[in-house]
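quick one
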Amino acid sequence: MALKKPASVEECIYFTNRSIGSGMAMAWVFRKECPKCGKDVLRKPSTKSGKPDKKSPTYVCKSCRYVENNEKVENDLVINIEYKCPHCGNEGEATSEYKRKSFEGVPSYVFKCQKCHKKIGLTKKLKEKKKKGKEED
Ligand SMILES: [Zn+2]
Ligand SMILES: [Zn+2]
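structure w/ zinc ion:
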């Protein structure tokens, strides 16, 4: 199994690359292809200032104007992960649902190491987000 990697972060709705203890993980979620025209991807609509409206309850296709609500889009997305396990050092790939679950009390995308089957969490990075001054996801 080889995961398809994004050519640029622009193709992704979520992208992160981080160390986890003695391991690391790179994770990405591709934007959903428009189910109506298949020519474009679904994105958050733009605000008046031209920036994506992250609070919008819907995603739109800029080519055909198809609209789908957030829940439906996000239920169809998968998170792709390339990792080095912080528990056993195994290097592998995994996919998981694009849904945050509570992991050690922190909302995280959770996946399992294929070798030692321990859970690994991609926690929401609150501190770094503040430092960089931009929303990571
Ligand atoms: Zn479309
Ligand atoms: Zn492991």
